Amino acid sequence: MLKIENLRVAVEEGGEIVKGLDLEVGRGEIHAIMGPNGSGKSTLANALMGHPRYEVTGGSVTFEGEDLLELEPDERARLGVFMAFQYPSEVPGVSVANFLRTAVNSVREEELSAMEMYRLLQEKMRVMQIDPSFAERYLNEGFSGGEKKRNEILQLLMLQPKLAILDETDSGLDIDALQVVARGVNEMRGPEFSAIVITHYSRILRYIEPDYVHVMLDGRIVTSGGKELADELEAKGYDWVRQEFGAGTQS
Ligand SMILES: Nc1ncnc2c1ncn2[C@@H]1O[C@H](COP(=O)(O)OP(=O)(O)OP(=O)(O)O)[C@@H](O)[C@H]1O
Ligand SMILES: [Mg+2]
Questions:
Q1: Is residue 115 part of a domain?
Q2: How many domains does the chain have?
Q3: 3-state DSSP assignment of residue 107
Q4: CA nearest ligand 1 atom 17, residue
Q5: Cα 193 from Cα 180, distance rounded (Å)
Q6: Which residues form the ABC transporter domain (predicted)?
Q7: Do residues 35 and 242 touch, judged by C-beta distance below 8 A?
Q8: Cα–Cα distance measured from residue 180 to residue 17, given in angstroms and rounded to the nearest whole number
Q9: Considering 98, 145, 173, 232, which has the largest number of Cβ atoms within 10 A of its Cβ?
Q10: Centroid of chain to Cα 102
């Protein structure tokens, strides 16, 4: 479904960050990407979504056979690729419900009626244990960290993408919220849904069981395994990965 070959991504002020990355994600698969701070995980996610500050300088990315890199971010979204919009700031005057209505209709061929939209939102908010009054609040205005994350997964459930890229959706969540977020992702799970879950902790992977775990180091995926690799990393840290796969040990 998603095929990344020898991808290179640079940022203007930071030089090359992703340095020849390969990754294949099949239909229905959940892939976790772990790796030390600064290894390029978020840069990869941003490049996949077409963030303008991240310049692809080499390699290829195809999604269902289409050249993803040729497409504008909104076209990628319409193809069914999702990344939670992490607005750094609040959006006064735009309610959660309004934002979701616009987002959902922009990826659909046919717009949902107001009633259909309302029902869908109610249903998904129930799954995420979000209070109905939340829909009328302005986007991110005064949201707690956990509320922002729940809201991201609410977007996911509303948009029903084929591929979701979740960058540290688990950070800053309390134990209950972590389970609610995991439930949201698991609700999507099925033969038509794939995800790349970027995380620092194996904890969330106990709730969202990945099919594959990859370790990113210095702009590349250096080793991959099953879900036991996440526990191994948590127990042993990244030093052994650096020793085995770090700069100087490979071309
Ligand atoms: N827009 C940018 N401008 C300058 N440098 C950048 C930019 N984006 C990323 N970088 C640099 O690229 C490197 C990788 O950053 P990235 O955010 O991709 O790492 P990460 O693996 O997501 O780390 P973390 O685990 O801390 O989230 C860092 O050194 C970072 O400072
Ligand atoms: Mg990051």
A1: no
A2: 1
A3: helix
A4: 42
A5: 18
A6: 2-243
A7: no
A8: 33
A9: 173
A10: 20
Q: Is residue 114 part of a domain?
A: no
CA distance 193 to 30: 8
Q: Which atom of ligand 1 is nearest to the CA of 200?
A: 25
Residue ranges near ligand 2 (ion) with Cβ within 5 Å: 41-42
Of all ligands present, the nearest one to the C-alpha of 35 is 1
pLDDT above 70: percentage of residues in the chain:
96
Per the listing, tokens 């729940």 go with: 150
Confidence of residue 56 (pLDDT cuts 50, 70, 90): very high
Q: Which residues, at least 6 apart from 88, have a Cβ–Cβ distance to it below 8 Å?
A: none
**Span 212-223, pLDDT tens digits:** 999 999 999 999
Q: What are phi and psi of 31, to 5 degrees?
A: -115, 130
Name the residue at shortest CA distance from atom 11 of ligand 1.
14
Our measurement of the distance from residue 154's CA atom to the centroid of its chain's CA atoms, rounded to an integer in Å, reads 13
The pLDDT score that the predictor gives to residue 251 is 43
Residues spanned by the domain of 15? 2-86+162-245
- Looking at the domain assignment, is residue 198 inside a domain? yes
For position 22, which CATH number holds? 3.40.50.300
Q: Considering the domain boundaries, does residue 147 fall inside one?
A: no
Query: pLDDT digit string (tens) for 25-55?
Result: 999 999 999 999 999 999 999 999 999 999 9
Instruction: Please count the other Cβ atoms lying within 10 Å of the Cβ belonging to residue 75.
Output: 13
